[in-house]
Structure formats: C-alpha cells, structure tokens
Amino acid sequence: MESANTYWADRALLEWQVELGADEALEEAPIDRYALNVPVEKPVEKQEDKPQPVIHRPVEVDAVATARTAADAAQSLDDLAAAMKGFEHCELKQGAKSFVFADGQPGARVMIVGEAPGRQEDIAGKPFVGPAGQLLDKMLAAIGMDRNAEALENAVYITNVLPWRPPSNATPTPDEVSMMLPFLERHIALANPDVLVLMGNTPCQALLGRAGITRIRGQWAEAVGRPALPMFHPAYLLRQTAAKREAWADLLTLKAKLKG
Ligand code: URA
C-alpha cells in the first residue's frame, strides 16, 4: 500500500514539474558537457578568404620557336652543332648514344639529306656508315663523287633530318621533324651547297612539304631556295634491288645538273 501511495505522489510531482516547464531529467551524478566530444561546428570559410595554394605549372615551351631562335643565332657549322647538341626538347636525345651531325666536306656542291641515324651511325657518331651508307658511297663513286674528296666539286656533304637515332629505327614523328627543321634549314644555309639530294620520304616531307617518293623521285624541286632532287633511300634500294635502275637514272640526272 505504501508503495502505491509513493507512486501516485511521485507522479503528481513529476506532472507538476512538467507543467512548470521541466523538459529533461537530471542524473544522479552531474555531467560535464564540456568534456563530451561533441563536434564543434566551424564557421564556414568563404573560398575567397582561404589562402590559395601555389600551383607550379610547367611553363609551356614552344620547341619549334626555341629551335628557330637557337638555329638562327648560329654563325658557323660549329655553332650550329653546339646549339643542336644543347637542344633539350627532342626526346630522342635521351635514348641515343651519339649526336650525329654531319660527314663529308662542308662547302661541297652537293648536300645529301637522309632521315636519321641508324644503329651503326649511333655507335660511330657519323651519318651513313652502316649498310645503307656503304651503298650510298658506291652510288656516289659511280658518278665520280666521294664524301672525302678534297676537291669540292667531287665532294659531298652529308647530314640527316634528325641528329639522334629513333628507337628501333622508327620513322620520325611529325613533331620531331618540325622541331628539328629550323636546325636543318640553318645547316643547309651554312653549308651552302649548290644542290640538295633528298634521300627518301622524310627529308622530302620536311623540306618540300610532300612525300610519295615513288612519284616524285628524279624530278627537280626547290627546297629552301635551292634545287633539290628526291631519290630512293639507299636502305630501300637494299631491300628493293630492282629500284636501283631508277636510282641510277637519278644519279645521272644529278651529274647532268652539276655539269650544266
Ligand atoms: N639512314 C639514314 O637516313 N641516315 C643515316 O645516317 C643512316 C641510315
């Protein structure tokens, strides 16, 4: 009986407290609410108030313009070789053993432009010294010319569109050709040949703006203001020996031009 009385008395007391506005029950022991790990809401920071991170973007370099400036500044073949060697924008440089600039006689009437060094040229640091180069030497000898001839009228000067060997002798990409073209053009100006011989599609595309060597070979064109004769590349002649007939005709065309 005693407990029922207590229940009704307690309940009446509680209802009276609710009426007075009590909305939570107190615990036996006090709670330190500051010690509770309640997430504190941070004031929202506006984007423009935040310190902005400094982003270091790589500066975009115009490799062709850089090459043009370096090439135009070269006043001699030695200057040009140094400028090309120091040019860091062509990735082929990283994979190549050697920088292959030129061979033969600067000042010769004929300047031969090939594609790029192959394995043997990369090892030797000289253009056209492998099997294709040996065939080239025989072709030149057949019309009385020699890269080592002392007399400039019988000599030739030899270079390539690219001075570094592409991995696995891949065909040079348009980007590689365009970034090295200013150097090639300056190379031709400084070597000052009477005529150019363009061996295969890559130098034709670079200097004439068109390829299709089977159609254009043997016909004089103009490259950087000089007569230019497209010919089959000697490496192609090693694979397609029947094409040597046309190559012989082209060599006679070259000889006739030099006589004329
Ligand atoms: N092929 C080229 O075009 N150039 C060389 O120097 C050797 C092979």
Name the beta content range.
5-15%
Bound molecules: uracil
Q: Class by helix and strand content?
A: alpha/beta
Oligomer class: single chain
Q: Could you report the average pLDDT, rounded to the nearest whole number?
A: 91
Helix content: 40-55%
For the secondary structure, the number of strands is: 6
Low-confidence stretches: none
H-E string: HHHHEEHHEHEHHEEHH
What's the end-to-end separation, in Å? 140 Å
Using the CA coordinates, give the radius of gyration.
Answer: 40 Å
What is the makeup of the main sheet?
A: 6 strands, mixed
In the sheet with the most strands, the strands line up as 1-3-2-4-6-5
- In DSSP terms (H or I, runs of 4 or more residues), the helix count works out at 11
Shape label: rod-shaped
Structure description:
This protein is α/β, with parallel strands linked by helices and 260 residues long. The chain is built from 11 helices and 6 strands. A hairpin with a 2-residue loop joins strand 5 (221-223) and strand 6 (226-231). Helix 2 (63-73) packs antiparallel against helix 3 and helix 2 (63-73) runs parallel beside helix 7. It starts with a helix and ends with a helix. The protein binds uracil. Uracil binds at residues 114-118, 121, 127-128, 130, 132-133, 160, 235.
